[in-house]
């Protein structure tokens, strides 16, 4: 999955109450990953339908200012993360969250936990706590102690500078497909067979087309002013499409029948209740 899809999937899992207790995120761009996780934390706590750089709700503002009591960030104090920092986290999160559903912590450079801090951290992770979500960031997972690693759900956030060229090559096909399904509307199921699968019978090509379609909706969801033909869609509409595409891209990696997968996507896309 592309990074954007992995990130959007975390928000989806949150709403399905399927989020793990602790995530270990390996990334090649610490600053970007940090910003993206902050955005996720805002998305799941936002009082409204989260829009890019939400400034209208209290919770997003508190997160931006570092003043939300139920959100704690830890970064190395000097070269290491010390035991006292983890103890402080443990102490503050022994209370139930007040303004939000969950207590959330984010540890930058989790590979810098020193020996005693690691032991305290392990105990903290092992004590099952209903309302705590953790994000550990590292740029080298090999430096994270195995005892920590084994207790985390691991996600790789490997940022590419831009959309891969072999995906971008399908931009025109993707835009046509979106226009057919969103604007023209007639014959949209037939379009899967008579155009897409007729012109691109290979699964790998179909997968790239839908990655490109995902990028377009996801850009729009994040407030892009491009793709004006999608301006009529609300944030909720876009979120639905992003989620449908995450599921579709996952399924495209299996052996499931291509035509059935695409038809299912179009049917769910048109279902206004979903
Ligand atoms: Zn907000």
Structure write-up:
- With 274 residues, the protein is an alpha/beta fold.
- It folds into 2 domains: 3-157, Rossmann fold (3-Layer(aba) Sandwich), CATH 3.40.50.300; 165-270.
- The protein is built from 12 helices and 5 strands.
- Strands 2-3-4-1-5 form a 5-stranded parallel beta sheet, with helices on both faces.
- Helix 5 (115-126) links the parallel strand 3 and strand 4 (132-138).
- Helix 4 packs parallel to helix 5 (115-126), helix 8 (171-184) crosses helix 10 (203-221) and helix 9 (188-199) packs antiparallel against helix 12.
- The longest helix is centred in the last third of the chain and has 19 residues, at 203-221.
- The chain is elongated, with a radius of gyration of 21 Å.
- The two termini are 23 Å apart.
- The structure holds zinc ion.
Give short descriptive properties of this protein:
binds zinc ion, 5 strands, 52% helix, single chain, 274 residues
CATH superfamily of the largest domain: P-loop containing nucleotide triphosphate hydrolases
User: How many individual domains?
Assistant: 2
Order of helices and strands: HEHHEHEHEHEHHHHHH
Overall pLDDT level = 90
- Please indicate the percent range of residues in DSSP E strands (runs of 2 or more): 5-15%
The count of β-strands is 5
Write the layout of secondary structure elements.
Layout: H1 3-15, E1 22-27, H2 30-45, H3 58-65, E2 71-74, H4 83-92, E3 103-107, H5 115-126, E4 132-138, H6 146-149, E5 153-157, H7 165-168, H8 171-184, H9 188-199, H10 203-221, H11 235-252, H12 258-270
Parallel strand pairs: 1-4, 1-5, 2-3, 3-4
Helix pairs in contact: 1-2, 2-3, 4-5, 8-9, 8-10, 9-12, 10-11, 11-12
Bound molecules: zinc ion.
Zinc ion (ZN) binds at residues 42, 46-48, 50, 54, 57, 59-60.
